[in-house]
Amino acid sequence: MKKFLYVSSMLVLLLVIRPASANVSLLIFGDSLSAGYGISQADTWVAEIERRWQQDYPEYSIINASISGDTTQGGLRRLAEVVERHQPDAVFIELGGNDGLRGFQIDSIRSNLSEMIHYLQNRDIHVALSQIEIPPNMGPRYTDQFRSLFADIAEQHNIELVPFFMLDIATDPGLMQSDGIHPNLQAQEAIADIMEPQLRAIAEQAASE
To answer: What torsion, rounded to 10 degrees, do the Cα atoms 176, 135, 48, 196 define?
Structure first.
């Protein structure tokens, strides 16, 4: 009887501590800024965070499902297959930049992002959205509408809006490729420094849900 009570107590203890120690996977669902355009996959800021987590936070894993050139429409088309393959606990959406640079309709961008978020939330997957900024090439009206779009979506769906990690990077020519759009190899560690604590907080939130 005592042995049974001991085993039962241990099972209860394991159930109590499991959420804190359970493995949590975070999927990065973005475009070239996260995919590492022009550099090796092993050198991207996502890969750098993965190395840090393997050493310091092995309970968390990060998956990079970003594709250079992707749009919100492309992301929406491929989301179900990516989720099915990786079964993430949380997803960080970093899409919209290519839409904005091409002047896509704001309502279309909004609809695509909202559908992605809705799909993930219906599957109890924690979602966070990146703010995206674009150059003012499309004019002040479009640029302002594009900028405010992301905060509106985050508020509508009650998800976290993560500040755009390129804000401080893009103003430093030493951290940018010659096209003036993509971060270079030297920028990847700096981006990892910016994003690691924010993504870890997202993983922690997913673990607690």
So the answer is: 140
pLDDT tens digits in sequence order for the chain, 209 residues long: 444 333 344 433 333 333 344 599 999 999 999 999 999 999 999 999 999 999 999 999 999 999 999 999 999 999 999 999 999 999 999 999 999 999 999 999 999 999 999 999 999 999 999 999 999 999 999 999 999 999 999 999 999 999 999 999 999 999 999 999 999 999 999 999 999 999 999 999 999 99
22-208: what fold? Rossmann fold (3.40.50)
Q: How far is CA 186 from the centre of its chain?
A: 21
Domain spans, the chain: 22-208
Would you list the DSSP string of 82-121? Answer: HHHHH--SEEEEE--HHHHHTT--HHHHHHHHHHHHHHHH
Residues marked active site are found at: 32, 179, 182
Measured CA to CA, the distance from residue 78 to residue 188 in angstroms comes to 26
